[in-house]
Design brief:
- This protein is mainly β.
- It has one domain.
- It contains 1 helix and 4 strands; from the N terminus they run E-E-E-H-E.
- The chain has a 4-stranded antiparallel beta sheet with strand order 2-3-1-4.
- It is globular and about 35 Å long.
- The two termini are 25 Å apart.
- The mean pLDDT is 93.
């Protein structure tokens, strides 16, 4: 299954602590900062369940997750609208994911 997850990341540097991200997290985006200065992040996660999707995010962004905003199940090939969430160059198929 594919999940669309969003959360507030309480850190100046919102990037994941694990890089490259595992294949189960094909892409993520920072959509801005809230009034506390925390980053608002969204990610696509491929996982067998919602719990596993949350676990994947927790592992990649250790310690900085302030609050979950939501988690929605999507179709396996779903991508967010490209006008608001342009696909990151590092996440393009065939791209070396270590080149973030």
């Amino acid at each position: 299954m594919r999940f669309w997850i969003s959360w507030y990341q309480a850190a100046e540097d919102y990037r994941p602590v694990i890089w490259p991200l595992p294949p189960s997290i094909p892409a993520y985006w920072c959509t801005g900062r809230d009034s506390d200065g925390d980053a608002t992040l969204c990610a696509i996660v491929d996982a067998p369940s919602e719990r596993h999707a949350y676990d994947a995010i927790r592992a990649a962004w250790k310690g900085g997750i302030r609050e979950w905003r939501g988690c929605e199940a999507r179709t396996n090939d779903w991508r967010p609208p490209s006008d608001r969430f342009p696909w990151p160059k590092w996440a393009e198929p065939g791209k070396d994911r270590t080149d973030g």
